[in-house]
Give the backbone structure.
Amino acid sequence: MDISQYMEALGRSAREASRLVAASSTAVRNSALLASRDALDNARAELADANAQDLERGRANGLSAPLMDRLELTPARIDSMLEGLSQVAALADPVGSISDLKYMPSGIQVGRMQVPLGVIGIIYESRPNVTVDAASLCLKSGNATILRGGSEALASNCAIAACLKQGLRSAGLPEAAVQVVDTRDRAAVGKLITMPEYVDVIIPRGGKSLIERISADARVPVIKHLDGVCHVFIDDSADEEMALNIAINSKTQRYGTCNTMETLLVAQARAAQVLPRLAARYGELGVELRGCSQTREVLPEITHATEQDWYEEYLGPILSVKVVAGLDDAIAHINTYSSQHTDTIVTSDHGHAMRFLREVDSSSVMINASTRFADGFEFGLGAEIGISTDKLHARGPVGLEGLTSRKYVVFGEGQVRR
Amino acid sequence: MDISQYMEALGRSAREASRLVAASSTAVRNSALLASRDALDNARAELADANAQDLERGRANGLSAPLMDRLELTPARIDSMLEGLSQVAALADPVGSISDLKYMPSGIQVGRMQVPLGVIGIIYESRPNVTVDAASLCLKSGNATILRGGSEALASNCAIAACLKQGLRSAGLPEAAVQVVDTRDRAAVGKLITMPEYVDVIIPRGGKSLIERISADARVPVIKHLDGVCHVFIDDSADEEMALNIAINSKTQRYGTCNTMETLLVAQARAAQVLPRLAARYGELGVELRGCSQTREVLPEITHATEQDWYEEYLGPILSVKVVAGLDDAIAHINTYSSQHTDTIVTSDHGHAMRFLREVDSSSVMINASTRFADGFEFGLGAEIGISTDKLHARGPVGLEGLTSRKYVVFGEGQVRR
């Protein structure tokens, strides 16, 4: 069987399984999640064996130390997968909820019902725990999944999938509701993203280049998250302590996350006062600053930011700093250079706050809060499969709701059109 | 300037204009709509001249009579464009509304704000009134539009656009918020659908082949409506008079619309009683029936339906009829052959009604109502730019809400992450 036929077989069985999962009850899907948890718990030895194979292969292939670390399934990581399954089982079921039900002049009642998307393809890199996270959120929301993990984690992913299939079976659901692509052949991805008859949406999780490649070639909608070039703007009227706290927290609470601030904008009127205090704090924390000419008038010791710096997602202890004339200038800068992920204003001016909220064209726009809050858990979604910087369908953190769609439902009593 | 440069210039100016439109107030956008109406009313002579050019060119090119009819801008059609503008101005503004605002344990308040999509590309065929309909709905929802109408209507579309631009100007909005692609070169479409940097979504309006071609080549999300293979299922427990009324209305109230029924499913237990009565009514109305073998046992005079008939959107007085074992069989048939547009069950069994509602995977699913109700106006949307058979973003009739997206907004008081 060639790779194309193999993927089509996977797709066809996922499509069939998706109908049964969509029609299943909340209790059945929850029991599958809890049975999967127990199966994983009972399969620790098998998981360790499979993971050891992946690690050995990784060592032989000279995988880097960080990749080897991400690949490892420690007992603590297995515990956290089990805990994750319990949490997902405990979330409210989004499927089947009907909202906005209203009578129309014709007498029919029209509303919208939350329904699963169908079959979701997930493409991700090394961490095997994503297999459990993604599969469990898709199952909870009534979808079937096809998982294509990193080839270096294939044995671990297959061992995890075996446990999930056991959970599905014990709940009376089809095993094909969760399938791992069991080949290292790269052609599998190319096929997965071009089968709209079997796959409703692709969610890639990984670096920008992976996601750009997938988006360019996909014939299926892609919920994508490219990068996080996030901004904090310190407005004329900002409370100084608040501005310092938010600017420091947004940059340094964690460097490697997509909701970390990468560019700080400071209103001209506040630059002379605020920048030296900020520079001192960032200096203590080891953050390198790169500034525009006006910033360097106040902080002559820092390097000059190039045009490229305004586009940069450093994911590390580097921050570009720009002095702007005021609100308009800040919004214009953000709408030009931001990756439309998360941007914050620190202000005490109500009008400025509301204009910023409305005019900044990003997935999450904040007033007086750290960019680090842009996260499914902090936003109360209970779960997160990713953060979308797209505009259509899902924008911002994607939880269970983002894995569903809304169809129209009509309750009539025999009405016909005149 | 070549076509690619021309389209990029259009895209760039649309992108700039979209920011200003998105930031404009409800009153400003409404005044642009009303000023456009007045401009069209004052330009009846110019519109007639431009339309006469198109009609003459159409005659010279041997355009078919129906196409010539659709092309003509009669005074009544201009009146209805003016009326449409007034109606759109009177609709509630979706932009900026904030919903689901809730406090989180961290103290931040998180909600979702309705925001414009940005730049919307509309690709449509002959009717020039679509230019006004589409542009006005996009403007109302805070978007910029690039309109690519049928080449046979180019002069009319440009004359209409001139009036819309006058309306925008008089309200202080950028003229580039509404642009008509002023060339007959087909390469313009190819470029329009592959400029994700300037165009956020494409809405094609036209035949299935046009839409399939655009979807296959687009590098921008497409809100698409392929076809309407709609079903009515007469369940075991259906009220007979209600079943007859809905089956007749769904097929014959209008033949050419996408929400017209194309296949009727009848539960086995009711076939012998219901089919002859239906056949008599359809016979009077001149509807040709094509049946499965079981249907033909009751109605031996009708032709045999082929496998292809179950996929067919007749858009005319032809109906395929199938006898099914019951609910499960009906749902299976619909989920196999339906175009996921609109499907109805006629039943008095509550359990069957609710299972049908949940398990039929279509954009609009109805109980005891004619399929002909699947329409933005009948659903209370106040307007309709199209009907989507997609799952992501918009499903079913697309009104102003479907031209917007929801971003997350956060109200803080200085919170940072711990």
